[in-house]
Amino acid sequence: MTEKSDSVGIVEACDFVFGLTEDDYLPLDCGRKLGSVNIRYETYGKLDDNASNAVLLLHALSGDAHAAGYYSADDKKPGWWDEMVGPGKAFDTNRYFIVCSNVIGGCSGSTGPGSINPATGKAYGMDFPVITIADMVRAQYRLMRHLKIDQWLAVAGGSMGGMQALQWAVSYPDAVKGVIAIATSSKISPQSIAFNWVGREAIKNDPNWNNGDYGANVPRQGLSTARMLAHITYLSDESMLNKFGRSLQKSDKYSFDFDYDFAVESYLQYQGARFVDRFDANSYLYITRAIDYFDLSDEHGSLSGTFRHMKSDFMVISFSSDWLFPPYQSEHIVKALVENGINVTSCTLESSYGHDAFLLEVDALSRMTGDFLRNLQAGGNGQ
Amino acid sequence: MTEKSDSVGIVEACDFVFGLTEDDYLPLDCGRKLGSVNIRYETYGKLDDNASNAVLLLHALSGDAHAAGYYSADDKKPGWWDEMVGPGKAFDTNRYFIVCSNVIGGCSGSTGPGSINPATGKAYGMDFPVITIADMVRAQYRLMRHLKIDQWLAVAGGSMGGMQALQWAVSYPDAVKGVIAIATSSKISPQSIAFNWVGREAIKNDPNWNNGDYGANVPRQGLSTARMLAHITYLSDESMLNKFGRSLQKSDKYSFDFDYDFAVESYLQYQGARFVDRFDANSYLYITRAIDYFDLSDEHGSLSGTFRHMKSDFMVISFSSDWLFPPYQSEHIVKALVENGINVTSCTLESSYGHDAFLLEVDALSRMTGDFLRNLQAGGNGQ
User: Fold this and answer.
1) Which residues of A107-145 are buried (b: 16+ CB within 10 A; e: fewer)?
2) Which site from A40, A56, A249, B89 is most exposed, i.e. has the minimal number of CB atoms within 10 Å?
3) Hey, which residues 310-329 in chain A have their CB within 8 Å of chain B?
4) Chain A closest-CA separation from residue B130 CA (Å)
5) Residues of chain A with CATH 3.40.50.1820
6) For residue B190, which residues of chain A lie inside 8 Å, CB to CB?
7) How far is it, in rounded angstroms, from Cα B302 to Cα A279?
8) Active site residue B59
C-alpha cells in the first residue's frame, strides 16, 4: 500500500448471508431458487443519518467486491476502480457511502458454481443454476435491505457493471435515484455472443474441465485461451498498434517456430496465465452466459417500453474505439430514455483504448461522474 | 453439377512434382530446403500460342486449387471462385488460361505437414519447415516454369491470396504484368496476429493434437474452435446483426443452459464441424504463421522501398466493413505504389459483408477485375 491522502486506505471484505430457510431463498429467472447465498461486499465512507448518500458500484465480468483500497500495509495492488474511489475522487468517500459486492455466479467470495451446494455437500459445478443480470441485481437488493438503505443515490458500473446499473433502474425504480452506465449495452450483439461462445468452447474442450467437476485440477489452458480471446476484444486495433505494433519479443528476427514470437503473443500469454490464477473457469461460463442473455427489450417488446416506468436520472457514457460495446449501443439506450422523457446526460468520449477505456479514461470519467453525483445529491438531475 | 453455359464444366486436378534431387530442392526463408515437393493445381481455358494469356489465381487460408468447375456430373459444389471464373465471367476462360494451385503448407494436394517426409517415411507433422508467403510464391514460380509461361498476364487473389499476389510482383517483377490484390494487406495488424495466436492455442491445447503427431485421431475440437473464432473475424458486426440478430435456434425462450441457444452459436458450431472434415490442423498452424510473418516492408525498410523496382500494374480493392483487412491497410499499399509512380487502380467497395465480401461481392468485383484484365491484355494498364 502506498500512503496516499486520496486512498480509502486498508479495507476489509464483509459477508452477508441470506436464504437459509426456504421462504428466504432467492428466486431466479431460470425458475430455480438459490439458498444459502453469500454476498461478499466492501464499503468505503460513511452512510449518513438518513441513508441518502449510498452509491452502489457494479463490477464487470472479471471484477470483484474490491473496488478500492488495500488489504494490508504491504499490499501493492489496490481495488479495480481505485483511481475513481476515495477522498476527493469522483466517488468521493468524504461525501458518499460506497458499496461494492461480488456478483452471484462469481468466484470472489459470493456464491457461485465453486461454492458448496448445501444439498450435496460438494461444489455446485454445473449444477449451479444459470443466473442472469436480473438475478445478480435481485441478490444485491437483499444486500441493500440488509444495509438499511431504501434508495441508492446512484448505481454505477462499466461493461457488465453498466448492465446491472440499467437493470437496477428497471427492476427497482424507486430504489435508484441515478444510474451511471458506462461502456455498456441493453443487449449485446451476435458478434459478442459469438466471442463468448468460442471462449466457453475453449474451456469446455479442456479435458481438465471434466463437465465442470475439476476440483484443484483446473482447466488452465481452456480458461487462459478464453481470456486471451476476450482480451483482444477489450483493446482496439489502434491501441494494439500503438502498444505492440509488430514488435518481436525475443530477437529482431523471426524465430520460425510456433512459440510466442511477436510481443503481442507474449502479452496475451501472460494475461491468460495471470487470469487463471485468480478466476474460476465455471464462473467464466456462468457470467458470460448471463451477459449473453441480458436483453432489456425482452419483456416489454422494446427498450422504450421497458424504460416506461423508470424514475432515475441517467448518465450514459461510451468510448469511440470500443467495438465490444460500441457507441451505437449506448445511443440506443439514450434514445429510449429520451422517448420516455427521462433525464439523461450522455457522451461518447474520444479514446483509442477500446472497451478498456472504462477503466483507463479516468480523468474524463471522474469529471463527468463527479458532477453527476453532486447534482444528484443536491436534489437535481445529472444534467 | 448444374448444366450452365458459363461454367468451366468438369475439371481435373493435376500434380507437378519437383525437388527430387538436392540441386532442385526449394530453398525456404527459414533457411531449410524442401525436397519432393508436390504442387496440386488446376487449369481452365487454353494457353495461347505465345503464352501471353495466363492468369494465376491465389487462394486464401482455407482455399485450394479448385477455383472453378465440378469434379463429376453429380458434384454439387463448384470451386471456391466459380462465380468469377468461366466463359464470359470476369476471369473469362474464353480469353484467359487460368491456373490455380494449392499452397505449400496446405492440405489439399500440395506438400504440407500432412505429407510424407521422405527422410523418415512418416508424415512431417511439426517437422515440416515453417513456410512463408514468399516460399509459397517460390513454389508457384516452379509451376509457372513447368507450364512454360514466362509472364503472367495477371496474378489475383483475396486475403492471403492477395498477399501472394503482392509478393509475386516483388519477388518476380518481370513475371507479372498485372496484380489484383483484394481485401489484403502488406502486413497484418497485431490484432490479427493475436486472433491467429488464440486460434493456434485452441488447436495446440487439444490433447489429440499431440505435438502435431495425430494420425487419424485428429484434434477436432481444437481446430473447430479455431475456425469458429476465425469465422467471426470474416463477418462484420452489421452482417451478423442482419443474418442472426439475437434469434434463438430451438425455442422462443432461453434454454438456460450451455448448449447452443442463439442461432449464431448453432451456425458457428456447424461451420466449425464442417471445417474439420476438410482441413488439417497442422496446416492451419503453418498457414496462419505464414500470414503472421508476411511483412512486405521488412526487407527494404519501408513498403515504398520494397515496391521500388516493381513493373506490374496494380488493382487494389478493399471493403468498407472488412475489419480483418481494413481499408486503411489497402490505402497503405496504394500510397506506396503511387510514391513509386506505379499504375494503380484502387477502390474501397461499400459492403456489409466484412472480410467475406471478397467472395460475396461478385458483381462489383467482376466488373472491376474484368475491365482490368482486358486492359492488360490490350497492352495498356488497368486504369
Assistant:
1) bbbbbbbbbebeeeeebbbbebbbbbbbbbbbbbebbbe
2) A249
3) 323, 326
4) 6
5) 14-187+296-377
6) 240-241, 243-246, 262-264
7) 43
8) no
The pLDDT tens digits for B208-245 are 999 999 999 999 999 999 999 999 999 999 999 999 99
- Neighbouring C-beta atoms of residue A97, cutoff 10 Å: 21
Q: Which of A130, A198, A293 sits opposite B228 (nearest CB)?
A: A198
The pLDDT value given to residue A298: 79
Distance from CA of residue A308 to its chain's centroid? 25
Give the nearest chain B residue to A195 (CA atoms). B229
pLDDT averages per 10-residue partition of chain A, 383 residues: 80 98 97 98 98 98 98 96 98 98 98 96 97 98 98 98 98 98 98 98 98 96 98 98 96 94 98 97 98 91 93 97 98 97 98 98 98 91 39
Instruction: Using the Cα atoms of residue B92, residue B94, residue B96 and residue B98 in order, give the sign of their dihedral.
Output: positive
Phi/psi at A341 (5° precision): 70, 25
Residue B30 sits at the chain A interface (C-beta within 8 Å)? yes
Residue B247 has pLDDT above 60, yes or no: yes
Domain with CATH 1.10.1740.110 in chain B: 192-289
Q: Judged by CB atoms within 8 Å, which residues 184-203 of B form the interface with A?
A: 187, 189-191, 193-195, 197-198, 200-202
Given a contact cutoff of 8 angstroms between Cβ atoms, the answer to whether B342 and B312 are in contact is: yes
Rounded Cα distance, A336 and A320, in Å: 20
B14-188+297-377 carries CATH number 1.10.443.10: no
Region B125-134: mean pLDDT is 98
- Spot the catalytic one: B322, B332, B351, B352: B322
With cell 503453418, the residue in question is B286
Nearest CA in chain B to A28: B256
pLDDT at res. A380: 53
The dotted CATH code for A14-187+296-377 is 3.40.50.1820
Distance of CA B372 to the CA centre of its chain: 20
Q: Which of B258, B264, B285 to mutate to test the interface with A (most CBs of A within 10 A)?
A: B258
User: What pLDDT score was predicted for residue B382?
Assistant: 38
pLDDT of the residue at B298: 79
Beta bridge partner(s), residue A155? A56, A179
Task: Report H helices in chain B.
Answer: 133-146, 160-171, 190-205, 220-234, 237-243, 263-276, 281-293, 303-306, 327-339, 357-360, 362-377
Nearest to B232 among A30, A191, A246 (CB): A191
pLDDT at A383: 38
Residue A347 C-alpha cell reads as: 457522451
Clarify whether B355 is annotated catalytic.
yes
Query: What is the predicted pLDDT for the residue at B383?
Result: 38
Dist. CA B26–CA A27, nearest whole Å: 68
Q: Which residues of A are catalytic?
A: 159, 322, 355
Cα–Cα distance for residue pair B24/B33, rounded to 1 Å? 10
Cell digits of residue B160: 492471403
The reply to whether residue B202 touches residue A202, judged by beta carbons under 8 angstroms, is yes
pLDDT at A301: 85
Q: B197 and A228 in contact by Cβ < 8 A?
A: yes
Lowest mean pLDDT among A321-335, B55-69, B300-314: B300-314
Model pLDDT, residue B381: 43
> Measured between alpha carbons, how far is B281 from A122 in angstroms, rounded to an integer?
38
**CATH class of the domain at A192-289:** mainly alpha
Residue span(s) of chain B under CATH 3.40.50.1820 come to: 14-188+297-377
